[in-house]
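Quick question, first post here. What does this chain look like in 3D?
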Amino acid sequence: MKRDAGQGKSLSPRRPRTMAEIAELAGVAESTVSRAIAGSNRVSEETKIRIRRLIDESGYRINSRARSLRTQETRTIEVVIAISETNRQHFSDPFFSQIIASIGDALAESGYDLLLSRSPPWGEGAFADTLAVKRADGIIIIGQGRSPEALNQYAEKNRNVVVWGAHIPGRKYAVVGSDNAHGGALAGKHLLSGGRRRLVFLGDINHVEVRLRHGGLVSALSGTGMSSDQTLMLSMPFDSASAYEATRRLFEGGVHHDAIFAASDLMAIAAMRALSDLGVRVPEDVAVVGYDDIALAAYVSPGLTTVRQDTSAGGRRLVENMLAILAGREPVDAVLPTELVVRQSCGARK
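> Answer (accepted):
Ran it through. Tokens below.
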């Protein structure tokens, strides 16, 4: 009977039924097998490969429930997208898909599962708080919403919280997010460089990130001597229908504005559809800029000029901070750079 490269004991004709038996076959401690399964850096790659091969050959299956009871860890991180009737965002929003994919990849590489939820942990319901009922080891929350006070109060009592959002003074949690003010300024400067002077902003500035985008736009105007009252702000939820209706109502009586800056790409695309339905040309009559750079932005006609958020880097930084907290280390806040992606919807060069 073959031996495992001279290490450990011979494979038993009976399939191993426990982690202890896998450890005996591998010639290592049971704790080493557990760390290898979790992808710990404390186990050499050679040992991990040997243990994985033994597990595959034996057909052994990890009893994750029993393991969780022993370690008091679920190896699961909850990702919360706190959707409400007020903001009207949906799981189908491509921005969410992009950042969740990045978070999921980073978690999988570290041996963690992802639990997706739309219920904030401070909400009502028996299973709203996964930390309290030990269904997750930590929570990553996407966005701070219109009322970040509840989030802050929750994070003050629960350390294992990381948030995608803005750097709010006095917050009690680690945050990773984009430089929204700079992104808004990039959009504003680009529109001004193309000769646009009568701007419309679509978005609800009660959301911290949206408020920063609008503030960046206003700062770009003030830098040219223009006053902020030359920008019309239309407050609305994060949904395409609201953006379409608001744009249609605004331009039904004629073209009195020459540019639209929307707080998201989906809103910008809806605005372009409304303009097209009214016979208003983009970009000849009205330039349009979005925010996020979702994949669809490059394929609509005309292609949408937009401010790119690095969701790939953002998702990974969120996971890095969460793993740091779980390891007893201090997380590091991050403000990721934003980038203007110029396409045909503005009719101007970068």
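The chain has three domains: 19-70, 76-178+311-336, 180-310+340-346.
The domain at 180-310+340-346 is CATH 3.40.50.2300 (Rossmann fold).
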